[in-house]
Amino acid sequence: MAEYRPLPEDGMETFFEYTNYAFAPQRGPIAYDPDEHETPRLSLGSPRGLYEGGDRDGKPSVVCRQYWLEATVRGEPHPVAGLASVASPPESRRKGMVRMLLERSLEEYRERNRILSVLWPFQYDFYRKYGWETANKRVRYACPPNALAFATAAVDDPEFVAVSSDSYDALDDVYQRHASEYALSIERDEAWWRHRVLSNDGPDPFVYVLERDGSPAGYLVYTVDGEEQGSRTMSVQELAADDHDAYLSLLSFCHTHDSQVDAVELPGPTDSSLLDLTPNPEAVDCTVETGPMVRIVDVESALSSVAYPDAGVSERPRRLTLSVSDPLIEWNDGTFSLEVSSGEATCERTVGEATVELDVGALSQLLVGTRSAADLERVGRLRAESANELEVLESLFPETEVYLREHF
């Protein structure tokens, strides 16, 4: 019987060995140095290992890092788990050990009352077969800085101030306002700001705040990549703005680097509007990428915990019977009754006849607002017994903008 447990302090060399081989084998074997490789950035996560036969003196067969987070789901903060750094050595592969690690991770999440698991996959198909599904897409713009000249022409000498990680609170208010527009936005504490946003494993980023009447109205976090003049890129890792004028000011800030860099790269959610703003959209490359993946940990708990604000306007309870298939864990595989009255929900197992059938990945997308019930039905991921059931699903699970920007 394999044992899943926290890695001891003397197990971090093995953790580094496995993750280096899994994610950077081109570097070859590297001697482990705790001062170099156990950075404050990584220490925010909790390392776990799966040990075959419960061998406490042996090496784990597979390792991972767990992050205990809070994310916005349907307008309210909820506890979620971030899964990262899943790695095993070649001699432990093709034995079902990663599957077992995922099962045990979900058991821990359930014990900790985490309603969702989120991760950045190395391969989407791999995690999809275990019940995770795409949480959101994201866009990445790339253009010469002169393509942003329109923004400089539209704003009146915006004021920017360079800040350090000690001034993270100057960014946090802007982040909170911007993040409130998107589901799965992570609640950030001081350690997360300092070690995950405002510092890197490589060179630390530059951080500039847009000030308006003495108060922060936007910010950029970016690096400049490329050694030689003529091949430098201003790579924006994160930007947030209070309003349209603030967004234009951030674009103008990038434009004014035209004497230093040859390209600007900007990330954003899929509702970002750069292509609609620039008079020369042909000068802007826009790439739409799949982002992180999400999965419900416990159907009963998750559907009972979240808010149903749109259902509160109904004078009568909304009821559905859901048949959920889960390829990994038995407590989600079955039939559940969901009743929502005055915005409050009760979900529990039932032996009743299901009126809606779907898999746990599709239900996860419904819950966070990634896709609508009608869209999932159209592509065969959901079956509703009648148009009435589909209408109830649409009212209980409205589609919304989802943007998990944290990469771990």
Short summary:
With 408 residues, the chain is an alpha+beta fold. It has helices spanning 12-23, 34-37, 40-43, 97-111, 124-128, 149-154, 168-179, 190-197, 244-255, 274-277, 299-305, 360-368, 373-378, 387-396, and strands at 3-6, 46-51, 62-73, 76-87, 116-119, 133-134, 137-143, 159-162, 206-212, 215-225, 233-241, 263-269, 285-290, 293-296, 318-325, 334-341, 344-349, 356-359, 382-384.
Plain-language structure description:
The structure is a single chain. Helix content is 28%, strand content 30%. The protein is built from 14 helices and 19 strands. β3 and β4 form a beta hairpin. The chain has 408 residues and is an alpha+beta fold. The strands form three sheets. Strands 1-2-3-4-5-14-6 form a seven-stranded mixed β-sheet.
Summarize the biggest pleated sheet: 7 strands, mixed
Beta-strand content: 25-35%
CATH class of the largest domain: Alpha Beta
Low-confidence stretches: none
Radius of gyration: 23 Å
Report the CATH topology name of the largest domain: Aminopeptidase
CATH superfamily of the largest domain: Gcn5-related N-acetyltransferase (GNAT)
| Coarse structural class | alpha+beta
Number of helices: 14
Query: Per the principal axes of the C-alpha atoms, what is the gross shape?
Result: globular
Helix content, binned percent: 25-40%
User: Could you say what the CATH architecture of the largest domain is?
Assistant: 3-Layer(aba) Sandwich
